[in-house]
Amino acid sequence: MSRMSDIEQAAPGAAPRIGFVSLGCPKALVDAERIVSQLRAEGYETSRDYAGADLVVVNTCGFIDAAVQESLDAIGEALHENGRVVVTGCLGARSADDGSNLVRKMHPKVLAVTGPHATAEVLDAVHTQLPRPHDPFVDLLPPGGLKLTPRHYAYLKISEGCNHRCSFCIIPSLRGDLVSRPIGDVLGEAQALFEAGVRELLVVSQDTSAYGVDLKYRTGFWDGRPLRTRFAELVRALHGLAERYDAWVRLHYVYPYPHVDEVLEVLAQGRVLPYLDVPFQHADPDVLRRMKRPANGERNLDRIAAWRQACPQLVIRSTFIAGFPGETEAEFERLLDFVREAELDRVGCFAYSPVDGAAANALPGALPEAERVARQARFMEVAEAVSVAKLKRRVGQDLRVIVDQASRHGAVARSYADAPEIDGHVLIREPAKPSAKARLAGSVGQFVRARVVGTQGHDLVAELI
Ligand code: SF4
Hints:
This protein is α/β, with parallel strands linked by helices. The protein is 32% helix and 22% strand. It has a 6-stranded parallel sheet with strand order 6-9-12-13-14-15. A 5-stranded parallel sheet has the order 2-1-3-4-5, sandwiched between helices. Strand 14 (315-322), helix 11 (329-342) and strand 15 (346-351) form a beta-alpha-beta unit. Helix 1 crosses helix 4 (119-129), helix 6 (183-195) packs parallel to helix 7 and helix 11 (329-342) runs parallel beside helix 12. The longest helix has 24 residues, at 369-392. The structure holds iron/sulfur cluster (SF4). Residues 162, 164-166, 169, 171-172, 206-207, 294 line the site of iron/sulfur cluster.
């Protein structure tokens, strides 16, 4: 049962019970939350184990080969343990070599297969197998819907799909072109989440700074006022909400388009956090062109310098690919230089791995796996030296942190520089005074202040103030 999501269980009753297995990225998690919330609104109960479930929904990922295998294994496990399985998510949209549906080919016994962001289709499949217990009754739900994340942070998906065609990526063929949600809906959901007690909202999409491009920045409405469906307007409105609810907003998957410059002064005020997750993927202009990356101009170093001038406390997280087809030693060295010069705070790196159906597979100059892995290791050595040095500069600072876990003996918290699940932590030591121990133990989901006294790997060590 290790894969089953830790979904809050309903009160006992005779209603059908649904198990849920959720794999994949934060965007897939948002899909899962929508499905679970709707099922609960319709009166279905949820089950934490296969044995107690009348049916299991498996939300899959189809991004890289390892994720495909993990998803296929999860479906197999659910079929073996329960037998009644509905599949949704990115893998559900993928075809096998013979053009048939990959999931159906590998697991013919599944009851239904849908693609990503297909809440209505999943509900139809569940209704067919297990008639709904009674009509929708939204009062069954807490105001923010059911969250699969801890209560104090939540993901907010602002759009689906992507207009780019990066040569290593198959997401556009799985999820289609960019479709932005209306700005009033996005802000309404943000407000409902804050009302429900969320303290940190993580904005996700495939391409956050392209928000509204597909709608030609159409004017929507929020709070009785017209508002354009556009990244900068959205950021300013989220800043206002975060201020009203004493909360944080964190932006993920922001491409360095010129109009991102407009929001740096908002970030400097600290509500929409001075933290940008910018997936650069590479720094050499030729490699970026072969990758067909958006915003692949050679001026990213200048852009970062301008951002830091407007917002000196800015933290930048990024991901990169080492060993892309045709990457020469000189191109790779240019990538290392970029990481040193850009002084990125948080960095991840994948060794290039061919994804079924990606255009990059046809590019000449594929590197042997050993070389790709070796370059990833060289990259991480440089990147880690940079980020550890930056971390050490924080010793002595007083930081506002949000507490994820706590007891009287210490706490695991995060500052504005740490996104949940992907970055480091601020580890708060056991305080000496009994009153401070009690305060710490009761601080989960709250903001506290802590003074940094040291570092430990990618984490900071701090004392409660
Ligand atoms: S920007 Fe590129 S990598 Fe990201 S989803 Fe779009 S095509 Fe894929």
